[in-house]
Specification:
Length: about 270
């Protein structure tokens, strides 16, 4: 990664509909350069929120999608071989620490614990990142902040953050928005009218009640936006809902019937 912070700037205001005082809380946490954990189910606005906050705070944003194959080198960097010999290449975490970006580690729980611990020295008073292979200690830029996302409930005992990692972060809880806010979001994102958006939200409410009763997860705001986008393109609402609110969620025929019935109440 290169160290040019301009390429990580968010130039246009990302639309974000606040749910409560999270914008103020995050701003205060940023002022203290406190590492923050965004907790909440899939598709509820965590990524949109951090994009909005990076724009608002005028910081570059570097996002890393974490997965279980990710190594510490993928975060901090590695030596590469090229025609002129070996050359060090910073990883995204190192770049963020150098340029003073907000570094967003998405789904950090997916990473192995030996990978996760590399963030520890950045998240305490040291605010430094040791590049062991290069024998360099990178002091974080004063504007650097670390943010991670975490989907509660998807973890098992073997796959969770250690307490010593968790307790390095302040946390904000995210939930699906209330009816009015969610309809507003779906209207805005999909370009459909309020009445149509409210129907989609009502369907989601029914499905969310099925969580733990045959569904692992309710219909996310993201899927409602998808449904709205298809409807906006002229797809018949019932078909749009099938495609976006029913099929992605479950393969169980009974559960699909139940969801289809919820759709049929409104369309
Ligand atoms: N509060 C909100 N304001 C504006 N848009 C929102 C909001 N919440 C959700 N959305 C919409 O829902 C979509 C999905 O949200 P987002 O990508 O932020 O989810 P996420 O919480 O990061 O999910 P995941 O855990 O799967 O990464 C966004 O692209 C946006 O259209
Ligand atoms: Mg996300």
């Amino acid at each position: 990664m290169t160290g040019n912070s301009e390429q990580y700037r968010i130039r246009q205001q990302p639309y974000y509909r606040p749910m409560g005082d999270e914008v103020d809380l995050f701003s205060a946490a940023y002022a203290a350069r406190m590492p923050i954990m965004l907790k909440g189910p899939t598709g509820c606005g965590k990524t949109r929120f951090i994009e909005h906050m990076a724009w608002k705070l005028d910081r570059p944003l570097i996002t890393v999608a974490c997965n279980e194959d990710m190594t510490a080198s993928d975060l901090v960097g590695r030596f590469l071989l090229d025609a002129s010999g070996t050359r060090w290449q910073d990883g995204p975490l190192t770049t963020a620490a150098r340029i003073g970006a907000i570094c967003y580690l998405d789904e950090v729980v997916e990473a192995r614990q030996d990978t996760t611990v590399v963030i520890h020295p950045l998240t305490d008073h040291r605010r430094a990142l040791p590049l062991d292979k290069k024998a360099e200690l990178v002091d974080a830029h004063p504007d650097f902040q670390l943010v991670i996302s975490y989907n509660p409930g998807y973890q098992n005992l073997l796959k969770d953050l250690k307490q010593s990692t968790k307790q390095r972060f302040g946390a904000l809880d995210f939930h699906y928005p209330d009816t009015e806010a969610e309809a507003e979001i779906v209207c805005h994102e999909a370009g459909i009218d309020q009445a149509m958006a409210e129907k989609l939200v009502q369907i989601a409410h029914r499905a969310r009640n099925l969580k733990g009763h045959g569904l692992d997860e309710g219909i996310s705001t993201r899927l409602l936006v998808y449904a709205g986008q298809l409807i906006n393109k002229g797809i018949e609402p019932r078909v749009a809902c099938q495609m976006t609110l029913v099929r992605p969620l479950t393969d169980d025929e009974d559960m699909r019937d139940t969801l289809n019935a919820a759709v049929a109440t409104f369309f």
